[in-house]
Amino acid sequence: MEIETEEDKKWELRLYVAGNTPKSVTALSNLKKYCEEHLKGQYRIEVIDLLVQPQLAEGDQILAIPTLVRKVPEPIRKIIGDLSNEEKVLVGLNIRPA
């Protein structure tokens, strides 16, 4: 029998943006809000600005921004846009069943 610790239940989320645009700012604030409500203490958000590090877009095959990538838990999932539709984001990240 495996015992899950808090460490095992970490969510690794990566938000790709291009500069400090209104859409990027909205996406990050929405993401932080959802994580605090649903994943409190169990998540890590990495923000990648593609204006600063454009080479990182290729690894996660980023075609549009802002894009949220759920790295852990697997499988990897992506959500494009400003994340303003909470239900769609929670279902998309598999935090809430469809």
Keywords:
4 strands, 98 residues, globular, four-stranded mixed beta sheet, 3 helices, alpha+beta, single chain
What does this structure look like?
The protein is an alpha+beta fold and 98 residues long. Helices cover 29% and strands 24% of the residues. It is built from three helices and four strands. The chain has a four-stranded mixed β-sheet, with helices on one face. A hairpin with a 4-residue loop joins strand 3 and strand 4. The longest helix has 17 residues, at 22-38. The radius of gyration is 14 Å and the shape is globular. The model has no long low-confidence stretch (mean pLDDT 90).
Helices and strands, with pairings:
Layout: E1 11-17, H1 22-38, E2 43-49, H2 56-59, E3 67-72, E4 77-80, H3 86-92
Parallel strand pairs: 1-2
Antiparallel strand pairs: 1-3, 3-4
Task: Please outline the major beta sheet.
Answer: 4 strands, mixed
C-alpha termini separation: 29 Å
The class by helix and strand makeup works out as alpha+beta
The Rg value, from CA coordinates, equals: 14 Å
Query: Could you tell me the strand content as a percent range?
Result: 15-25%
Percent in helix: 25-40%
What spatial form do the alpha-carbon principal axes imply?
A: globular
What do the pLDDT scores average to? 90
H/E topology pattern: EHEHEEH
Number of strands: 4
Low-confidence stretches: none
Q: How do the strands of the widest beta sheet line up side by side?
A: 2-1-3-4
The total count of helices amounts to 3
